[in-house]
Structure prediction request, 296 residues.
Amino acid sequence: MIAAQRSDIAWPKISLVTPVFNSVKYIEQTIHSVLAQNYPNLEYFIVDGGSTDGSLDIIRKYESELSGWVTEPDKGMYDALNKGFAHSTGEIMGWISATDKLHTGGLAVVGSVFRELPQVEWITGRPTLFNEQGMTIDVGKIPHWSRYRFLAGANRYIMQEATYWRRGLWEKAGAHMDSSRRNGSDFELWVRFFRHAKLYPVDALVGGYRWHGDALSLVDLDASHRTHDEFIEAELATIPWGKPLRVFRRISTTMQSIRKVRWFWNRLVMNSLYRIPGRDWVPVIKYQDDRWKFWG
Prediction:
């Protein structure tokens, strides 16, 4: 257990981007969840893709409290994020989609962790879900992260709404998101981040995902998984241990395609990848005695 000793340092600037397209039903809750943080050093951009449903009226309502906003046609969410991040200057970066929300004090968690633990480049909070009305309906367990377990198929879902990183990591990973796809490029960004830094779980609430029927990732979950698999296969072709991991993934795909075997495989093998501690696990960041500490 290592205690942090940097509580006297100023709050780091956080650059936060919200991509929007026809999200009038949710966007005001999203904006309010950001501005209500009252984080002392926030840079908040909204990038709209040419909404026609009333979203722009809501954005204009909060215009004076934003660092900037734009509305123009784009190639989708990832193109919008590239535009927003290109104008940002903060040391810490992240995004919150127009349907999702931050938890109360979420940015204070992010800013204080990065302020007090300079060796940490990339964090994610507890996974949480909101229902369509915006109520918190689920708070998940603290996941553990390992690059090779991630590439093997465990802990596929890194909750983007609770994930933030240092600008230095963004630059090392290429300083862009893949805008050639409409879905899955957050996963591709995580693959690139894992090349350069460990992902630290934080035992705190940062942001959450709103469960609603129009979400791109839920419209065709199998298609999202196929996209993830493409990114992983490309990565495995370039790294040490890539060949045995590819063999493992092929075996896993075969086992999960057999109904009578699937349950045993997931329980005995895949669950072990998720839960059995190993030297590749990074410690959890927890708050105790007025400071953030590494545990485990």
User: Anything to note?
Assistant: The mean pLDDT is 93. The longest helix spans residues 259-275. The chain has one domain: 2-295. The CA atoms of residues 127 and 140 lie 5 Å apart.
